[in-house]
Records
---
Amino acid sequence: MSSSSTNTTLNIPVLLASLGILYLFSKLWRAHLEMAKFDGIPAVGPSGLLSSFISGMRYVKNARELIKEGYEKYHGRAFKISIPNSGWMVIATGPELVNDIRKASDEYLSFDEALNEFLQIDYTLGKPHREHLYHVNVVRNAVTRNLSARYSDVRDEIIAAFSEEIPVTDDWTSINAYDTILRIVCRTSNRLFVGLPLCRDPDWIDLNIQFTVRVNSIAAIINLFPDILKPIVGNLLSPTGTATRRAHRHIGHIIQDRLDKQDQYGRDWEDKPNDLVSWLLDENPGGKYRTAEDIAMRLLNTNMAAIHTTFFLLSWFSDTLILHNDICHKFKSPSPASSTTWQSNRTQSSKLSERKSSPSLKNMDGAKFLWATSAKWIVFMKEVTRMVGVGVLVSGRKVMKDFTFSDGTRLPAGSTVCIPVWAMHHDERHYEDPNEFKPFRFSDMRDIEENGNIKHQMITPNSDYFLFGTGRHACPGRFFAVNELKTLLAHTLLTYDVKLEGFSKEVPEPTLFTSAIIPNQKAKVLFRKRIMMD
Ligand code: HEM
């Protein structure tokens, strides 16, 4: 009896170890078979089973350099790169392949499935957000359509947010740029989304800022686990319950009231607010989606798409302007005439001398804002996004059915393909002196090229510029984002003098994490009341 029990206790560890080894081998074998499907596509770095795993680790901090290396080596073709815990990812380069991605249908290359996998939507946002994406149509249509009707509210919120967050003082005041700018962007965007007074509620602002961070970090954790364990980990970590309850406390009664009014009076009723809540209700497919919880979650989801991206860019714009005082000076002595009298096909030198001779606008409060946001040279923003951007890659698509590029390269179903936006924006085939920051690059291109005025707008996707992605999934919020950014920037420069603390000569180093380019979280900016120049 005692000898048989000893045998059992001895056998259990042996059994567990054998199962472990078996699991490891089956995993390695499957990984080998999976990797073999990509054999025809060249790799950046080593492509062996273990060596590619190590190279995947390098991707975490060096994605930008690795992708640039592959871009230069294999330009015009597709190459593969090892991603931690996800095997190979394919990067398409050159106009033909990028155009293949732009044209491909969702049946073959799916934006939704790529996002679904990246964000683990079932667990982080909830299944309804995978099943029905009506909020995307709302951003595409109603948000954009209502921009001019709601512009004065957004501008009003920008003025209020800045005066509370960064009081106008005669002495320099040091501000933690990251947190402050993020709150201002969140509040401003929410003036359009949910209106007053909720857009100013500190807990609503905190919820929306934190929700994005939580969703991304929880998704990253879930993605570390094998598929079989994802439901367990996903349900354990899911932020949806807490977030919906917290959002519901703020907005549940407002949504319920609108639902009741819609039941009573139909789609249009007197004094119906013109905001995202109403637009979501107008587009709502009904049934299980017509609940206060579902709509509250769509609000969080839209905030997630809107806030951090816009904030990243505003940070880069501010840093760049601070370091390029010459551009700031255009704001300090602006001329309404200069924006309207600029003609096409002028020479660079005549434009520059015109900029220098701009008369003061200091007594023209109403006009100066309009001038500041409509001035042609504000397209310097586009040059900043070209230089820095928000990510190394864009337009991730999941391959749903085997896909063949126009050069014959085959992508196996189940793989993911992306466009290397950062490398493209730094390619001399697309831009002269690509590593040089030329604030008026796009302004000049707009003046000189035929149809340049349309082609080089920041919102226009074209074959050289991919900040907002490409094809039918190109960012539908870009019209709002660009208008908001121009106004945020114009207000900053018309109200404050700004300088960087500690970083006098260079833009504070961004944090690079996998394919994200994140503004420096420690950067401090000094603000004081703007001193007018004559
Ligand atoms: C400057 C800030 C922004 C940047 C850089 C940006 C960038 C992007 C990019 C790269 C995509 C994916 C495109 C693709 O895969 O080809 C995207 C999608 C999206 N963006 Fe933006 N975005 C910004 C602001 C906004 C704002 C303010 C909103 C909402 C008001 C928004 C809503 C969306 C939505 C809903 C999608 C998904 C589109 C779809 O499912 O087809 N974005 N954005």
---
Amino acid sequence: MQALLKHLVDITCQRDHTLLDTSIVSALRELVGASQVRVHELFRYRDELFVRPRAWVRDDQVVSQEEGPDNHGEPITNYPSLVECIKQRKNHTEESGPGGEHVLWLPVWLNDKVNTCLEVINPVPYSGDTLRMIEGILCVYRNYQNILDYSERDSLTGLLNRKTFDEKFSRLLAANVPEATPQDQEERRLQCSPEIGQWLAVVDIDHFKRVNDQFGHLYGDEVLILVANLLRQSFRSQDRVFRFGGEEFVVLLRSTTLDDARKIFDRFRANVEQHEFPQVGRVTVSVGFASISTESPVMILGHADQALYYAKANGRNRVCFYDELVSSGELHSEVSNVTVEFF
Ligand SMILES: Nc1nc2c(ncn2[C@@H]2O[C@H](COP(=O)(O)OP(=O)(O)OP(=O)(O)O)[C@@H](O)[C@H]2O)c(=O)[nH]1
């Protein structure tokens, strides 16, 4: 009882999804005596459902995906018991693992949808009491996920909000510590090297004031929601999309080459251009992006912002890359005065 209360206190004092995931892995491992507990996220990619672990036990420690390299996940069809459990809208299902271990799958149901599921592996079968305790802990976890979601997201578009960006971006920068000297970085910038990198883009709707003025704020809001949907559809689940404020969005694009980053941002720009917005018709966006280097968050955002202002001043409906504008002499490498205050 004491151990259960301690874990419930631990779960409910978290202010962040990653810490919440790791605390539920710790709780179930200790309370059930499980040999492995994994929190998986379920996500859709090109019309197929995938499963990817977000937190699990490794070498007796609880670790999370944020600490490791990118994992693109596996199709959910590799887990037929889980597929069947979700199809039948069940709260759990048990199967035997390859070594005879007992594997328990627990989808986390939220408004008829499953975005997260737990996998608990135990050498011995689960008793009725153990199952009831696991389901009780799962309910606390689900309710708490709901509360965190509410505080992390923008209420109009459902995208992650500015506060969450500040936290996630600092964490991404802390994890992204390449041993590159300033000369290396300058060289890379000049060569536009094909290395895998992380990229930050600022996206801004063109002439959005005109939409509000001509059609009213309700239509303006609808455009914001539809652009947010296009953002969600255009990027992979391990990328992160934020509403930064007003008609401005920020995208963190993970682990891709410069060429691909350019294509991906341009594909999104084209998706918006081709979309028929009810009543409003055509809408376009401008995008400025920069590489996520070892520079400070203010500098990186400032670079993307400068590229965005360049795109706005030079025709709109285009994607501009900061480093390229600097190497071609179209931009100077100081942080622009127009950069808004970050952090
Ligand atoms: N409907 C709606 N409008 C918003 C919201 N937040 C900001 N806006 C409006 O967004 C508009 C932004 O206009 P500007 O910053 O002048 O930029 P713009 O008209 O998009 O022009 P460019 O960025 O130069 O292409 C303003 O009219 C704001 O009132 C919102 O949540 N809903």
